[in-house]
Specification:
This protein has helices spanning 16-29, 35-47, 51-63, 65-73, 75-81, 115-118, 123-126, 128-136, 138-144, 181-185, 190-194; strands at residues 92-96, 101-106, 154-159, 165-169. The protein has 202 residues and is mostly helical. The protein is globular and about 55 Å long. The chain starts with 15 loop residues before the first helix and ends in an 8-residue tail after the last helix.
Length: 202
């Protein structure tokens, strides 16, 4: 089972966190950014808008067949039932991983991404390399993330845009039938909802 935090070095920019901290320091020193406001914004995206929301959507789909049907019929409306909506969350489409098909999401033009359910996009998602290679050689990219598919599994790549954004519903792990929705949500990572990871095993 791959580690959800595993990300290929070739897809990550060098020292992004250090660059972000340096930029933050300069902006604060120049009086252009209020540290308290910045901390509040970061807290919002970490705790209120983030992958935990998408994980709740997936867990509900696994546990509730009626919700799952609504999610695949009109993802935007179904996701809004759980209170997750807003800018960058319009025109959502849910796609389901199965034993025959594995879905992978990319934005080849820029970095369109469903912020209300996945939070801030990771650096590798915005990189030119991921945006190009996810389309040209998706199996190789998935292997670098630790996702080894069966030969019979087809990879379907979905290209997000300003008009449509995708949420991958990973396959439900075996032996998870007795778990609560909260426990199911713990098995779903951000990467699993992009397609670069599988759900955690029970």
């Amino acid at each position: 089972m791959p580690h959800d935090h595993h990300e290929p070095h070739s897809l990550l920019p060098s020292d992004p966190e250090l660059r972000a901290r340096a930029l933050e320091t300069i902006l604060v020193q120049k009086g252009l950014v209020d540290p308290a406001a910045l901390n509040a914004l970061i807290d919002t995206y970490q705790n209120d808008i983030g992958p935990q929301n998408g994980a709740r959507v997936v867990a509900r789909a696994w546990a509730d067949p009626a919700f799952k049907a609504r999610l695949f019929s009109d993802a935007t409306a179904a996701i809004a039932e759980l209170g997750f909506m807003g800018r960058q969350g319009e025109h959502m489409v849910a796609v389901e991983n199965t034993e025959d098909v594995h879905n992978l999401v990319v934005c080849t033009l820029c970095s369109c991404y469903p912020w209300p359910v996945l939070g801030i996009p990771p650096a590798w998602y915005k990189s030119d390399e991921y945006r190009s290679r996810a389309v040209k050689e998706p199996r190789a990219v998935l292997a670098e993330f630790g996702v080894d598919l069966l030969k019979r599994q087809k990879v379907k790549v979905w290209d997000s845009s300003a008009e449509i954004r995708y949420l991958v519903v990973p396959m439900r792990p075996k032996n998870s039938e007795g778990l609560s929705e909260g426990a199911l949500a713990e098995l779903v990572s951000r990467n699993a909802m992009i397609g670069t990871a599988l759900a955690r095993a029970v």
